[in-house]
Amino acid sequence: MEKRELVVRLTILLLHLLEWKFQPNLRGRSWRLSIKEQRKEVVNHLADYPGLKSKLREAMAQAYDVATVKAAKETAIDEDGFPAECPWTFEEAVSEGFWPE
Hints:
Elements: H1 2-22, H2 29-48, H3 56-74, H4 90-94
């Protein structure tokens, strides 16, 4: 259950990072705050369940796979318009200073 929660949080985070990168004209307060919120949720979840750190690569891959489908659904971009593999490391994705351009 703990891993599932991590994947869900990472999916939301990666979805918003994809939208941020691929729809720069729609960047706004809501996306920025959602990204910040999910970053905090992911970091807090890992602090509560440190054993999940060994599953980060798998969790990121699962989350990105779903995030690209959701991003395609929410944008005018086809699934194959996004990179096949997550273009960001876990560390980048949760870094407060990282905003993909």
